[in-house]
């Protein structure tokens, strides 16, 4: 059923009116009977409930307004693909409607081929669950199966919208977008949950969880209102599910608060399902004790001990890290076992800025997965990394910087503010006169900045003008950077101590990622560098998250538990091969043994430094022979 030209004319008239029109006035305007106008108004209300709001008032007449900016789309009879896809998803999944291809084609003014393509996209998402299916028969097309899985699909749909909005979006902006697909009063009721949790003495542990809780509340209320409920759940009264039962009270209370503005009737299974989500998303009564968290302290201690060894920083005495990590591991394990997925909105930035730490955390968690059966995703690794990075930031020692300056017309505040722009805010800066510097033990100073010439000294030294010009700042920044990287040269090619020319696969003709990894792993097994289980752990790692590091390069790895002797094989392919969503030509497979755990940071850092220093390697290698490349790796 499609909108007729006469009905389009009615829509145009009503949308341009600021006040009510009587049906008689409308009939006169378009030269039809009053009865026909009533019929057309009923049809518009029936066919376009999501696009056009028709307001009827006895004694006043009728007026209308677009719910979205649809005028141009309707009059030109064009809808963009994303809009059509989302509306079909809404009808099939959110509203549980049975649709037909012809009706959708007519409704959105697109070809039946386009509708079929959109249905194919939805079917691929539906089929990812073993308990949902897209059914097509003489009645039309519909989604059938588990209500719980349907709601999971709706939550994923909301996550897609959230990702499109970007990491800086607000809850209010997210809410406005969701009003296009869910009932407005439900979205508004869910929007008030932040006030509700304050009133109920609840707390959200981290800001990003609020979007997850908000999304779940909307999905569940929408489905419950339409009389769709989660299937009966067999409650497990042992283990961690007891903790979920604590959240049953929170879930029940939240539903009651929502029912003050929205009418719906939840079941026991609905309440319990919300409790499981709230537990996973860490919404808690302030008085709830983490009685199960203590069992994760041993895992956290072991993880901290391994990371301390790997990065050569003793974090074992950091009680705050131990506590935060224990709580996070408990909730992470709970989420994984209940299939509650949290997206890390900053994952790409985390990997880019902290690639070394990210890979190290992956290595350590691979071991914990083997020992304690802890499952982890790349999103969760990103969250775990931040705990360690924060601990490192707390440990960062202040550097001592002395500024030698004679009394002059330039104030000390001016000098300090200028220098602060190019050094760490944690550094200590002292301004002294030329005589005072002679009585200071310069071995305790990291950098000297002077406005007058000084005698030659071992401490890094920058000569600048009293005004600290832009050029002076460049000099200071260079000296400061040199001070920070004095050990970089020593570490630059550390990985080459663990390579073997026998395992440098130069200018190979592999056609796939599988071919590359299988040959490398088979050789390492044959020469007794690794256990066969290491190969399995490499493939598991590849499935859990990408190992592409940019510039046509990948750095795959597996569990250190199955490495007998550290080895870093290198593969150079003649042409790039598909590696997940990317193309890869260079592969460094780092197999680090437990005995070399203390060197893992240096090894991985040296690989990343080598790739950074040879950023044109994918092109340059085409003109190299094996000996030239070997010289590049080993030097000398």
From TrEMBL:
Domain PTS EIIA type-2: 497-636
Classification lineage: Bacteria, Bacillati, Bacillota, Erysipelotrichia, Erysipelotrichales
Pfam families associated with the record: HTH_11 (PF08279), PRD (PF00874), PTS_EIIA_2 (PF00359)
PANTHER family: CRYPTIC BETA-GLUCOSIDE BGL OPERON ANTITERMINATOR, TRANSCRIPTIONAL REGULATOR MTLR
Name of the molecule in the record: PTS sugar transporter subunit IIA
InterPro entries, sorted: BglG_antiterminators, HTH_11, PRD, PRD_sf, PTrfase/Anion_transptr, PTS_EIIA_type-2_dom, WH-like_DNA-bd_sf, WH_DNA-bd_sf
PROSITE patterns, per database record: PRD_2, PTS_EIIA_TYPE_2
The entry's keywords: Repeat, Sugar transport, Transcription, Transcription regulation, Transport
Domain PRD: 291-398
Any Gene Ontology biological process: regulation of DNA-templated transcription
SUPFAM superfamilies (alphabetical): Phoshotransferase/anion transport protein, PTS-regulatory domain, PRD, Winged helix' DNA-binding domain
Domain of life: Bacteria
